[in-house]
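Troubleshooting log. The previous structure file for this entry was overwritten by mistake, so regenerating from the original sequence record. Sequence copied from the archived sheet and checked twice against the printout by T.R.
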Amino acid sequence: MKSRIAVLGCGYWGSNHIRTLKALGVLHAVSDANRARAEGFASEQDCLAIEPDALFARKDIDAIVMALPPQFHAETAIKAVEHGKDVLVEKPVALTVADAERAVAAAKANNRIFMVGHVLRFHPAFEKLKQLIDDGELGEVKYIHSHRLGLGKFHTENDALWDLAPHDLSMILAITGSAPVEVRGEGAAILDHLSDFAHVHMRFANGLRSHLFTSRLNPYRERRLTVVGTRAMAVFDDVEPWERKLAVYRHAVWQDSGHWAFTANEPTYVPVGEGMPLTRELEHFLHCIRTRTPPLTDGEEAVTVLRILTAGSVTHY
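Regenerated output below.
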């Protein structure tokens, strides 16, 4: 029997969930504080439109996908799991670590699946990159840096770091397998008191270093994750077409008679099977609901991401 899923929040990202879940054959209902918006999607996708307050007690709904303003995520997720619903909560899972921890604890206490929408973990190019690392193709990973730049979107509650960095932090944590032992942040607010540019520098217990750079006030788009290993370097560039999204550079650097020497080789593009990350993410959510197995992007990971965001945040007055 297929799971019956409701989407709470019919904004930009919620609408993507709605269409994808419909294509997967599991969309049962939509809900939004703006009833007209919910009814529009319900008519378009041939599903129910349910008032938010009435959603949680419905026996015909197995799980809820939440795409709300992040300040509402934690309380809404707690209400859902206490009513027996599995949840997928969009990033960021909350605006404070304490709220995120309460939501995760509530899900655990009620034996509910709690997944967070770190969608790039399900990108075929990232999955292939992770496989290369696990197989030792890059040698020992020494440094990871990510750049996520562009114009917009602009939010009143969360800045460029909190809006853009969760995806990259989730990928970095998947590679490192541990939380950083040191986090340092820098930010710049141009439009108002929220950072439009943000850098986060991280150090891990094994000596690995990492940094990420996010901007919502940049004239060009950049979506690039670079991993530097002792044998090779790899770049996951999501702006590139599929055949060029994952590149491996087998550069060599060595000392010769007291001087540094190097060879710079052309990249090798690694074949990557095409697939929509959101579809793969939601398929994983449905698998977790069916098998009761913990998601790859679970609540514990989301709390770690929030801790890094909190430690790396800069307050502007």
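The chain has nine helices and 16 strands. Archived copy saved in two places this time.
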